[in-house]
């Protein structure tokens, strides 16, 4: 009898555990009345702090730009520049002077009014307070002057097509003159959301800004929940812990969400070119023929199918299809192992492929390795911890032969123009094309940038494996998700639950 | 006893001091520069140098160590470069979560192990005792994270009864707090419980063969009474040792379970800190973990003395 007693006790413990949870099962999934919409979205990378003027990392602008901080302009889902804090702007005939008319009755979340003085303040901070190299992208600004409280004139040193576009990135974020004392923890912006709470290591909650000038968000709370583990994020969506997976880390896991009565899968594009970088600065890849051989040796469609479940797009150069100067360059180096061998002249090479320990890089590296082996290039894969080790060894010291990384910055072809960048690509003609493109008219810009992309491809400065897809999974009934991830922010302004 | 306590305390303090030096030295060996990582792919060399100066990582290692150790003595863990927040409160926050996780797991392990282990020992000759022994063997073979993944699959994904992960502070919602911890506790507790069952069983078996227990039975106590009155205290000595070791392992090993269940504990903080080369934070967390392990050993040693009069 005693024996049975213990088993009953154990069984009872298990049962009560299950029952205790079971009772709540009905409400766990869809808690919250329709009036108070609380939504939570799963992300991979959590911001280290909230100051994108001094700390790198996509996670900060992803959470804050457009949502908490606004610029004079923003990028819409088609990649077009549209007004935000500026109602309109006029460009002078010499295209060196921009007159912005500011929206009136805009206040910061601190209550301070947004005026021309804040615009001058924010744009001047780029030179004085920003610590990141990207701030140099707006070095073209010569002066910023306030004409009256709602008019600002920005004068450029030379005409620049990139200027307005750059204003739509984090560099154009408008700060309050009285709100920059603790950017790392207390962001003060004009956006539709304010920072609600930040549970470090877990989540950031955004709350609607009660004094927002525009259409107020319909969600009463948006929580950005951070998962280091892809499976944990998938499980959270399966069990109702979150409403959206913002970026699927393992496309092969999508079948779990195949039921259309429960989930929707959204696939759009990004700016993330997955680049097979080749060190142009040392043998063997200082030899153009060897680089060209690599490009011929890789079967890109097979690689995409194997490494990323066929999701994504083949590109062929450093331009995503959402940029105006996109051309299909995938035909430049068709898969042709015989040609590759011919270019190598029968020689074989042993090279180091030092990749970041990220899923797409690890998956792609296996395919690249086996395809290169067939033409006589033996690549030894060495995964490095990302970001620390990879940044140090590959990016800073350029101690590598091959690497694989997704370059996510928008319109970032210009990184090839810097010969000290880790590609060590050095072709002055390329830089000249880009400089001319920036100064020319819009039509000239498009034409010249097409030429630059072609040059990059012809020179085989790198190989462009594929364009990272923007893969999201959401519960059925979630609307207003930004399909394409082509700006730096994850725009929550239209997010709603039906 | 007082002398023993004082001696043991001196050893504890000395080991902690040595640990501080070792922890600091290891951080210096970690490749990667915090300033470089904070600025990422967009850094200028000047900005990196400036940030190093602000962080204080451009100073001589000895100066950095003295600064840090001096702060520790006053209970100040420094201010993180990366988050710009003081390290101490962050660690305290996370330590609270991990402590609840580990202690809960440990209590569950004890609740399972002591009755089951004793039962298996008393009945080691019959089928049920052997069955418990076999099942606990299986438990030992399963790592806690695997148990966690299986539990999530069964109770969260299939049954939709419990959350698959996440953590709700008790101050926010006690019921949700309990629900969010049930699976993590179970995955730690079941596995550790299995390990502990084995130890309890063999400790009780050993004690049952002792002469004094036979004598107690000869004097008229029933076998259960004899075991209860004379056996369990003696059997608990090796179990306390194992318990101390397990507690230390759990504290450090909770990293993996925290990751599976997305629990923002100390392990999660440590992993983040390492990824971002937030050296002060990593140093602080490792120091706290080392100190905790030393403290557990201290408590176990003292517990011996209380349990075993021969050592006094």
From TrEMBL, chain A:
Key word Lyase present in the record? no
What UniProt keywords are attached to this protein's entry?
Signal
CDD domains xrefs = PBP2_NikA_DppA_OppA_like_6
Q: Which residues form the Solute-binding protein family domain?
A: 80-406
- UniProt superkingdom: Bacteria
**Stored InterPro entries:** Peptide/Ni-bd, SBP_5, SBP_5_dom
Check the UniProt entry and state the signal peptide residues, or none.
1-21
- GO cellular-component term (any): ATP-binding cassette (ABC) transporter complex
Q: Which GO terms describe its molecular function?
A: peptide transmembrane transporter activity
Task: Note whether Signal occurs among the keywords.
Answer: yes
> From its record, what is one biological process in GO terms?
peptide transport
| PANTHER family, A to Z | PERIPLASMIC BINDING COMPONENT OF ABC TRANSPORTER
Q: What is this protein called?
A: Peptide ABC transporter substrate-binding protein
From TrEMBL, chain B:
Give an example GO cellular component term for this record: plasma membrane
> Which residues are listed as membrane-spanning?
9-30, 99-122, 134-157, 177-200, 237-261, 281-307
Topology of the protein relative to the lipid bilayer: Multi-pass membrane protein
Q: Where is it mainly found?
A: membrane
Provide this UniProt record's keywords sorted from A to Z. Cell membrane, Membrane, Signal, Transmembrane, Transmembrane helix, Transport
List the signal peptide residues.
1-19
Q: Does the keyword Repeat apply?
A: no
Q: Where in the cell is it found?
A: Cell membrane
Which superkingdom is the protein from? Answer: Bacteria
Instruction: Indicate the segments forming the ABC transmembrane type-1 domain, all copies.
Output: 95-300
Q: Which GO terms describe its molecular function?
A: dipeptide transmembrane transporter activity
- Listed Pfam families: BPD_transp_1, BPD_transp_1_N
In its keyword annotation, does this UniProt entry include Transmembrane helix? Answer: yes
UniProt lists the family membership as follows: Belongs to the binding-protein-dependent transport system permease family.
Question: What's this protein's name?
Answer: ABC transporter permease
**Organism whose genome encodes this protein:** Nonomuraea aridisoli
């Amino acid at each position: 009898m005693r024996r049975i007693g213990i088993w009953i006790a154990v069984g009872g413990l298990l049962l009560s555990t299950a029952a205790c949870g079971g009772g709540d099962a009905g409400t766990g999934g869809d808690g919250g009345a329709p009036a108070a919409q609380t939504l939570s979205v799963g992300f991979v990378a959590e911001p280290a702090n909230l100051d994108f003027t001094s700390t790198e990392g996509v996670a900060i602008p992803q959470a804050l730009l457009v949502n908490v901080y606004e610029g004079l302009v923003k990028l819409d889902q088609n990649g077009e520049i549209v007004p935000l804090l500026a109602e309109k702007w006029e460009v002078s005939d010499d295209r060196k002077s921009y007159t912005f008319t500011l929206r009136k009755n805009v206040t910061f979340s601190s209550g301070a009014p947004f005026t021309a003085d804040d615009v001058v303040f924010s744009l001047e901070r780029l030179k004085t307070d920003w610590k990141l190299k990207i701030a140099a992208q707006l070095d073209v600004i010569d002066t910023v002057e306030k004409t009256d409280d709602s008019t600002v004139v920005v004068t450029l040193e030379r005409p620049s097509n990139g200027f307005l576009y750059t204003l739509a990135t984090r560099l154009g974020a408008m700060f309050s003159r009285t709100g920059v004392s603790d950017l790392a923890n207390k962001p003060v912006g004009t956006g539709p959301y304010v920072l609600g709470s930040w549970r470090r290591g877990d989540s950031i909650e955004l709350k609607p800004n009660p004094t927002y000038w525009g259409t107020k968000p319909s969600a009463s709370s948006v929580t950005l929940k951070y998962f280091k583990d892809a499976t944990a994020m998938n499980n959270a969506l399966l069990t109702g812990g979150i409403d959206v997976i913002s970026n699927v880390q393992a496309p092969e896991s999508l079948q779990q969400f195949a039921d259309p009565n429960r989930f929707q899968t959204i696939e759009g594009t990004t700016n993330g070119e997955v680049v097979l970088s080749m060190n142009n600065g040392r043998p063997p890849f200082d030899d153009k023929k060897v680089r060209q051989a690599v490009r011929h040796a890789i079967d890109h469609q097979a690689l995409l199918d194997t490494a990323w479940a066929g999701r994504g797009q083949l590109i062929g150069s450093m331009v995503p299809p959402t940029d105006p100067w996109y051309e299909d360059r995938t035909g430049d180096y068709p898969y042709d192992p015989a040609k590759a061998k011919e270019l190598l002249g029968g020689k074989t090479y042993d090279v180091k492929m030092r990749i970041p320990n990220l899923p797409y890089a690890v998956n792609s590296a296996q395919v690249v390795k086996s395809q290169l082996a067939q033409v006589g290039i033996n690549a030894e894969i060495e995964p490095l911890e990302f970001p620390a080790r990879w940044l140090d060894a590959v990016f800073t010291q350029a101690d590598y032969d091959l690497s694989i990384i997704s370059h996510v910055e928008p319109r970032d072809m210009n990184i090839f123009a810097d010969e000290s960048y880790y590609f060590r690509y050095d072709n002055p003609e390329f830089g000249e094309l880009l400089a001319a493109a920036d100064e020319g008219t819009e039509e000239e810009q498009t034409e010249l940038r097409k030429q630059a992309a072609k040059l990059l491809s012809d020179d085989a400065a790198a190989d462009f494996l594929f364009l990272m897809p923007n893969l999201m999974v959401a519960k059925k009934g979630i609307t207003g998700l930004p399909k394409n991830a082509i700006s730096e922010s994850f725009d929550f302004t239209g997010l709603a639950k039906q | 006893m007082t002398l023993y306590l004082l001696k043991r305390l001196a050893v504890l303090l000395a080991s902690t001091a040595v640990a501080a030096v070792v922890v600091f030295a290891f951080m210096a060996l970690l490749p990667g520069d915090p300033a470089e990582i904070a600025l990422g792919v967009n850094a200028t060399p000047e900005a990196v140098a400036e940030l190093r100066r602000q962080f204080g990582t451009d100073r001589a290692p000895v100066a950095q160590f003295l600064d840090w150790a001096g702060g520790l003595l006053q209970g100040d863990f420094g201010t993180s470069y990366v988050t710009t927040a003081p390290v101490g409160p962050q660690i305290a926050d996370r330590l609270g979560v991990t402590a609840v996780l580990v202690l809960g797991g440990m209590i569950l392990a004890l609740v399972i192990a002591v009755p089951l282990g004793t039962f298996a020992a008393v009945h080691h000759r019959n089928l049920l005792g052997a069955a418990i022994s076999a099942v606990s063997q299986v438990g030992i073979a399963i790592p806690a994270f695997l148990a966690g993944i299986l539990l999530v699959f069964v109770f969260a994904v299939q049954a939709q009864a419990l959350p698959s992960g996440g953590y709700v502070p008790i101050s926010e919602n006690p019921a949700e707090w309990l629900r969010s911890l049930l699976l993590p506790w179970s995955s730690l507790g079941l596995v550790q419980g299995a390990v502990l069952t084995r130890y309890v069983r063999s400790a009780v078996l050993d004690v049952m063969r002792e002469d004094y227990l036979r004598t107690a039975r000869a004097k008229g106590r029933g076998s259960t009474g004899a075991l209860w009155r004379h056996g369990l205290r003696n059997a608990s000595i090796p179990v306390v040792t194992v318990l101390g070791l397990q507690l230390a392992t759990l504290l450090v090993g909770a990293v993996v379970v925290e990751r599976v269940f997305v629990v923002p504990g100390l392990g999660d903080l440590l992993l983040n800190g390492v990824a971002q080369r937030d050296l002060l934070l990593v140093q602080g967390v490792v120091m706290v973990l080392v100190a905790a392990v030393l403290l557990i050993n201290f408590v176990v040693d003292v517990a011996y003395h209380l349990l075993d009069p021969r050592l006094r």
